[in-house]
Amino acid sequence: MAQNWVVGLTGGIGSGKSLVTDCFSALGIDVIDADVIARQVVEPGSDGLARIASRFGDPVLHPDGTLNRQALREIVFHNPDQKQWLDALLHPLIRESMNSAIRASTSAYAVLAVPLLIENNLTAMADRVLVIDCPEDLQLKRAMQRDGSSEQTIRNIMQAQASRATRLAHADDIIDNSGTREATRHHVANLHTRYLSMASSAN
């Protein structure tokens, strides 16, 4: 029988969420990634893409029929009403897909990785909230190295996300990801043991 015990994993940009989700995957745990689902709900042939194309027309499509994210971002960035429409379309589709993936999960528990778990009020989807944490200057450095973005761009993204203090206030568990990869793997392994016990008790 599929289980529904869920760890909601979140953290700011550059905090190292991917390293942690990779560790859980390596331990045999199903990871449901909101970023992956957000791309799936606007793939060619999806209802999401059809409705976006119907509203915004050809400018938001590449010649191959895929979504031109940059063109769409430019439109909604300058028009709050359009952004509100887009959010109202996509957020329920993403949430529905996440719920389906949770129901389909066959591992002892599932990890729901959502960068904006707290900002979008999705903590109720999880039994535990796990925050991946590191100092903000390290977030900035990592994100700039990874994305090749300017310092100001990364700072703007950080500003738009929940503050570090807010994330930590919502946390049931915290992984300090400012040390070595091995230290993080060790921390995940310890949490995994606890989560197996908790999920077993819940079921």
Automatic annotation (TrEMBL):
Pfam families documented for this protein: CoaE
CDD domains in the cross-refs: DPCK (cd02022)
Binding of ATP, residues: G14, S15, G16, K17, S18, L19
Pathway: Cofactor biosynthesis; coenzyme A biosynthesis; CoA from (R)-pantothenate: step 5/5
Reaction(s) the record says it catalyses: 3'-dephospho-CoA + ATP = ADP + CoA + H(+)
E.C. numbers: 2.7.1.24
Gene3D superfamilies on file: P-loop containing nucleotide triphosphate hydrolases (3.40.50.300)
GO molecular function: dephospho-CoA kinase activity
Keywords: ATP-binding, Coenzyme A biosynthesis, Cytoplasm, Kinase, Nucleotide-binding, Transferase
Source organism superkingdom: Bacteria
Sections of the chain in a coiled coil: none
Entries under InterPro entries matching the protein: Depp_CoAkinase, P-loop_NTPase
EC class (word): transferase
Family: Belongs to the CoaE family.
Functional description taken from the UniProt entry: Catalyzes the phosphorylation of the 3'-hydroxyl group of dephosphocoenzyme A to form coenzyme A.
Protein name: Dephospho-CoA kinase
UniProt source species: Alteromonas salexigens
